[in-house]
Task: structure prediction
Amino acid sequence: MMTLTTLMILAGICITLLVTLLVILFKQTRSHEAFIRLETRQQSLNEHVEKLGMQVERRLSESFDKNNTTFQSVMERLIQIDEAQKKITDLSSNIVSLQEILSDKRSRGAFGEVQLTHLLRNVLPEQAFSLQHTFKDGCRADCVLFLPEPTGNIVIDAKFPLENYRHMTNIELPESDRQAAKQQFRKDIRKHIQDIASKYIIPSETSDGAMMFIPAEAIFAEIHSFYPELIEEAHKLHVWLVSPTTMMAILTTARAVMKDAATRQQIHLIQEHLGHLSKDFQRFQTRMQALATHISQAHNDVKEVYISAEKITGRFEKIEKVELETDKGTSAFTPPSLASY
Result:
């Protein structure tokens, strides 16, 4: 038989094994819970990483779309700039061509005539003006306006001295050359005014004034701003300086004057038609009165016919009453004597 010591040793071993087993089971349980928590956290982390990846992908896509739109916009702007550059190049070549045209006196005069002709035909009828009109003395004017008396015919000169104006406004030239061109420009304008006054103000053929057409608003403004003595001299010689804007106002006024003169010329016809209209209205009034009289008479006749109809109806009603009484056994009907009426 086992001794007590052996039993105690066995019991101690069993207890130790039991405790060891419990410790192992406790550790396994904690390890399993930790593994579950780790797996849960890893899954949560994966989901977060996936969401983060989707956000990054979306933002990259949006950024790419914006960059693509910006790039397309920049390309469109570059195309527009390229087209504008081409237009500027074409405009520069056209300006050079225009300067070459206006540097020649003949071409310069033609340019002024073309612009003047365009203004005239936009405002006035063809019979109101004449281009390249020749007077009795053989002098030829660029344009003549045929205005009613007492104004009469007005000559418009379409040429203008541009060469020295171009020199005086060219900033690339030395100041001395520009000043010399400025003085020469004053002389050119004065001579042109005097030539117009001497050639185009013709007694018994034109009015006592003429117009100098300047087809450039800049030159017109330059003269009025810095050469008041030329304006005063032109007024004394009855030469009126006009620009495209002021010419349009003058032509519009001239059209109104022509229309008023044409109306005055036809005033006798208007008066004649008004006389006929007055007679027609008097005749209409007479006939209307006669019609009103007939209508009134017809109304009275209808009224009298209506009264007669009522009387006849009453007579028939009385006759019917008499016949009805006879049918009921009353005394025989005796026609009333004529004396009763």
